[in-house]
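Schema walk-through. Below, the input block comes first and the output block second. Nothing else is stored per chain. Lengths vary across the set, and this one has 285 residues.
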Amino acid sequence: MAGGHGTARRMWTLFEPVHAVTYFAAEARSAFEQAGLRGFWRGYFAGRSAPLGRVAAAPVTASFYNFAPSMVARALPAVWDLITPEQALTVRSQGAVAALRRLLGGLDGSVRVAADMLATATTGLDCAGRVLAAANAALPLADEPIDRLWQAATLLREHRGDGHFAALLAADVDGCEALVLRSAADSSRAQVQPLRGWTDEQWDAAAARLADRGLIGADGTATRQGSELRAAIEDATDAAAARPWRDQELAGELAATLAPIAIACAAELPFPNPIGVPGAGGEHG
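--- output ---
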């Protein structure tokens, strides 16, 4: 793997846990419940899609890529009758900051430096073709260090995610197929399928399409060709995410500063987890 691409993957393992507390920390879930959004998925779809504005289900299905359309439609656009996008932005920030404040106690100096360096990495970030990243990049950057840290990490992870979905699209792997292929390699159907809303019929049809392409075998595991395609998609994802890390000196300094922060945040996450984030440094737990 080329140096820049390897740096992109390494940095992802460090900033992704900072963002991911949004989904796993009690404070983040509680913030949406207190705002009147009962049930995890209302808060998830409201918070993550809020930068796009008062959007309906179809654009979110497209930009989130691997959720079943029917699952997205259960939340959107009805959730906007309970909370505005502007309110959802505030709630998701408050929940994340509360969680990070608990997790990062004693790391105030590192948080401030990491927040500034992550913000520097996002300055002038090219978001062409990256809808979620562009929407997050358009939000004003927070002054408070923990909030700024989370916001920059969120922008970078959506930037990488948009590139990952483009790599899947270029490889002719649709949203459900992506989950089936992942489950055939290093996850499980039982863990992933219910959390993305695909029916058994849809999942089995996706598996059949992959089998017809020689990507998974009769036993449901990835073939050599399937494993090679997954590796190629990951390489393409790293390549598309490498631009913020062209300054190798900045990346190295940031990695050292961000490591204890990422470790503290990763302690809040289950391993393995449905979003595929490894432990800080790449360990899958």
